[in-house]
Design a protein that fits this description.
Strands 3-2-1-4-5-6-9 form a seven-stranded parallel β-sheet, sandwiched between helices. Strands 7-11 form a two-stranded parallel sheet. It is of the alpha/beta class. The chain has 13 helices and eleven strands.
Length: 315
């Protein structure tokens, strides 16, 4: 009897960064854009064919504005949760998939699993990259826990894959506004150590994984940069900007009101508001720490520091 794992536990996977490849990004959000931008920065002669799926015409317009080098015809607008739309997106010979789920939705895992199933059914997909979150085993945060279900399914799907687990990114903080107002605002404790990871480093790691999939098949990579308290982060930003910036924790009532408003703005139900509130409570008590060794190895250098990031943004 043949070994059922032999079809996916292999180094014989073609590169996604080759004109003969067809790379699908299932999401046009921040993390996917980091990888997309890094791919588009490659020499045009070595770029794969690219397709990106987005939910709305406004998202498509935003993507075209952000990436003029992206062929507008490669942007597919529709409901990325619908199986028929997923099959359409995967048609035409897609060879590699880069998937980032939509957070704080109860069906996040279901839709990711549908993408995995449809990628297998397409018959042409040779490699599946799943972007989750650092420490999905922190199950008290539903936005982390739900990704663990996806990782488990992907590991058992008999499809070559790599899982990237980035920490909270620096881009979630409006550095320019913090300098303007003199406040670096956060939902949780300004004295608890938290993760700081540059999303551009995620893009760089993604390119390395996509370039040599065989070397990264069946891997799960924790991508962590540095740990700072927000008080420390504000002090660093003050030094870089040459202006005083203080860290301020939003009070509980204000934070919960903001959770509710964010849920409404996304036309979501209580699941979003509850999930966001739970994340705030968890980080306020435990913070989120990790180790940067894997990031250093994959990048071939030290991860970008918060100070370097602030200098880049303010420049």
């Amino acid at each position: 009897m043949s070994n059922p794992s032999s079809s996916y536990a292999t180094k014989d996977i073609p590169s996604a960064l080759d004109p003969s490849a067809f790379l699908l990004f299932t999401n046009g959000g921040k993390q996917a854009r980091a990888a997309l931008g890094a791919v588009l920065a490659l020499n045009e002669a070595s770029r794969p064919r690219i397709r990106v799926t987005v939910h709305s015409d406004s998202s498509a317009a935003s993507l075209r504005a952000a990436f003029p080098a992206l062929d507008p015809a490669s942007i597919l607008v529709g409901d990325t949760r619908e199986i028929s739309f997923q099959r359409t997106a995967l048609a035409g010979g897609v060879t590699h998939v880069y998937h980032v789920g939509r957070e704080f939705t109860p069906s996040e895992a279901v839709h990711a699993i549908d993408w995995i199933d449809n990628a297998k059914a397409a018959g042409t997909v040779r490699f599946f990259v799943y972007v989750g979150a650092l420490h999905p085993f922190r199950r008290k945060m539903i936005n982390h826990r739900i990704k663990l279900d996806v990782e488990e399914y992907l590991a058992e799907a008999r499809l070559p894959y790599c899982v990237l687990q980035p920490a909270d990114h620096m881009q979630n903080h409006d550095v320019e506004k913090a300098v303007e107002t003199g406040e670096l605002i956060q939902y949780y404790s300004v004295d608890e150590l938290e993760a700081f990871f540059d999303i551009k480093d995620l893009g760089e790691v993604s390119v390395k994984v996509l370039k040599n999939p065989g070397e990264h098949d069946l891997a799960r990579y924790e991508l962590f940069g540095y740990a700072h308290t927000y008080r420390e982060a504000a002090e660093i930003l003050s030094r870089v900007a040459g202006k005083p910036v203080q860290a301020r924790k939003i009070e509980r009532e204000e934070a919960l009101a903001m959770c509710t408003e964010r849920a409404k703005s996304r036309a979501e139900n209580e699941y979003y508001a509850n999930g966001f509130a739970m994340m705030i409570a968890y980080n306020d008590r435990f913070g989120l720490l990790g180790n940067s060794n894997v990031s250093k190895w994959l990048l071939g250098r030290e991860p970008t520091t918060w100070e370097e990031f602030c200098k880049r943004v303010l420049a």
